[in-house]
Each structure stands twice: as C-alpha cells, then as structure tokens.
Design a protein that fits this description.
The complex is a heterodimer of chains A (207) and B (226). With 207 residues, chain A is mainly alpha-helical. Chain A contains 9 helices and 3 strands, in the order βββααααααααα. Chain A has a 3-stranded antiparallel sheet with strand order 1-2-3, with no helix packed on it. In chain A, a hairpin with a 5-residue loop joins strand 2 and strand 3. In chain A, helix 4 packs antiparallel against helix 6 and helix 5 packs across helix 6. The relative contact order of chain A is 0.10. Helix content of chain B is 24%, strand content 16%. Chain B has a 5-stranded parallel sheet with strand order 2-1-3-5-7. The radius of gyration of chain B is 22 Å and the shape is flat. Classes of the chains: A mainly alpha (207), B alpha/beta (226). At the A-B interface, strand 1, helix 1, helix 4, helix 5 and helix 6 of A face helix 2 and helix 6 of B.
Chain lengths: 207, 226
Amino acid sequence: MKKKIIIDPVTRVEGHGRVTIHLDEYGKVEDSFFHIVEFRGFERFIQGHPYWEAPVLVQRLCGICPVSHHLAAAKAIDQLVGIDPEDLAPAASKLRRLMHYGQIFQSHALHFFYLASPDLLFGMDAPVEKRNVIAVAIENKELAKKGILMRKFGQEIIRAIAGKNPWRGGCTGRDAQKHLTQKKENTFYPERHPQHKNYDRVVIGDH
Amino acid sequence: MKLCPTGAIIVRGKSLSKPFGERAFDLESSQKHFHHNIAEKPKVANFEKKTIATVSLAGCFGCHMSMLDIDTDLLDIVELVAFNKSPLTDIKTFTQRCHLGLVEGGCCNDENIETLKNSEMCDILVVMGECAVWGGLPAMRNTIPLGECLEEAYLNSVTSEQGENTVPYHEDLPKILDRVYGCSEIVKVDYTIPGCPPSPNHIWKVVKNLLWGEDFSLLYSEFKYD
C-alpha cells in the first residue's frame, strides 16, 4: 500500500511550507514534494489601486523582509513619474541601500540566532522540546543577548529611515527625506555622541 | 496657529507643538499605578509558568516578528511562558493543553480551517492582527474571482512563457477557499488584538493580563495606527 510521509508545517523557517514524501509499496521513496501552501493573489488585487499605494500594500507580503518588497514596488513605480531607478539622486539611492542593508542584517540575524542556532548548538538529534530559541536563551544567555541585539540594530536602522517598523515608507518622495534626521543619524555613530546607546559596540562586544 | 477656539481645525505643523501620539501626555500612562515593563514578573499570589501556542495561518509573520520585537525583554519572558506549538519551535502538534493560543493570519485554504479548529486545545483563543480579525490584506481578493487571481499569478506573470505554465493542482495541496475568512467566522474567538502589526508592548501586555490577571494600560503611542 502506498504511504506518504508528511512534514507539516515546516517550522523554524521564515515562511510556510509542507513536505510530502511518497513511498511505493516496498517502502522506498518514489517522489517527494515541497509545497508552498499559501496563495494570496497579490498580483491581481493591487491592480486598480492608486499607484502610490503599491509600496505600502506590497510591503505586507512578508513581515520579515518588508523592505525588499517595498523597494521593488518603489522601483516599479519610479518609471511612472519619469525617473529611471538606476538614475536617482545619490542621496536617495544611498538611503534605499541603507534601508536594505538594515533589513539584510536583521533578517539574517533572525534566521541565524532565532531559527537556526538550536540546530547548531544542540545538534540535529536533540529532543524536540529543546530545539527552539527559548532553550538557547535559557542555556546561553550571552549568545542570545548578542543575537537579539544584532537584530535590534537592523530594526533600528530601518526604523530610522522608514519612520516606523515594520510598515512604513522611506523609499519614495517626501517620505524618504523626512525621517532620517541628523540627530537620529548620530545615534549610530559612537564617536559623535558617546553617551548615546551605540548598538554596534554592543554587537562586537566591547562596551 | 489657532483657527478654531474648540480646536476642531488643526493646521499640520502649526497648531500643535508636537504631533498627536508624541505629546508627553501620550507617552505616559494616564493610570499612574500601571507603569510596568513587559519583562517584570507579574505580582500575583500563585505564579506559575504557562504555555502558549502560536500559529500563522495565511499571515505574513509580521505579527510574530512584532512579538519578537521586544528584543532583550525576551530573555525575561522565557521565564514566564513556554511555547508549545509554534513556528518558532519544532513541535508540530499539540503535546498538551495550552493556556493561551495566539493566531495570526486569516483562513485562505481548507488546511487553515483545520488548524484553526485544532485551537480548541487552547483554553483562551486570542487573534492578533488585522488578517486574523477580519481577513486583512489578503481579503482584498474577495471581490475578485479566484480564477482571475490564479491566472494572473501563474499564467500571465512577467517571467512565464505562454503555454508552459499551469496553475498548481496536486492531491497534497490544500484547496483554496472562495474568499478569505477572518478567524471569528470559523471558530469562537475570545479576544482580538487589532493592528497591522500590533505593537509588541500591546501584545505582551494583553498576554500577561489574560494569563495572570495583571492590569495594564495602553499608551496612545502603542495603539495608534497611521
């Protein structure tokens, strides 16, 4: 009798997923699939809305990487107002890049410390109750704290440019100019304002 | 600049010295004795560690990220709660009855409905985020026939070749529902936390109130969405 092994849901990944392995009558693997089970239909339902809403709507595709989608939508509508995305003013393109780097930093820190570190610290064969970020936080508080602060640093960068995290502007027009003030920028540089909390020092560990 | 003595007409940038939500009044609690931070242990008579379960149905994980946005307070929260079935842990099915269930995301396929009906293993069911409360952003496809959405995504996309793509249909894939339902249309929901995403303080204050009865007050800055 044909059997199926179903791994549902795939946990500790950034998203949804489901794995099914089809076995034949002898118990050998015949076929295996990786299913993405959620379908939301973004491509169709954003049609008909004002074009400046596109970055704001599309951000909500993903709560972990909203900036990527925001930037993609911003680039897509850039040409509507007559700007080639490659051709922006240097400050604008630098702001966009900075926001994107902030997101890369926080998303990678999230995956590595919150989602993948249990496997690396406790091994793949650890008992199920142990393979999560809570066990890492209980066992090795210093490491967990550093990982959390790394993610916080990325989020703070995004927040400084976008105004609010995770859903905000930051890529288009007036919005891009108004949030990153000089004062906020100084909080990221320890030598300018030594008494401000400087996250990068904490991340490296010499504070 | 005061155009109206009752304050009904406000000129942006001129009438108020600080915008709504950033005034000193908004950043402090009006109830003076509820100044607690998330990481403090609730001061109740018999305190015991409780289990919560979280799930993300058709959500984008923004609400889960917001839950994790308490940053270093997480190290203190782990002494108060244990996570049972959650995308953050490897536990795939309920191993015990949980005290609280947090649901994110609405129902868009029949597997979501099954998962939601499993939530009767939780004593209290809390839905968080707009998607779970009434459908949220994915519910924007409710006015559009499902066939058109699938066509646009799989057949007419920019990178597809005409005639080479098919809409996925497989025995293992869950069937997509005709429209996106909020969780309250499927099961009885006890509490809702609105917001897209709700602010982390809001979520954890509600969780601590439901599990241990600790009073809380929401600041305006944690509850305004614009």
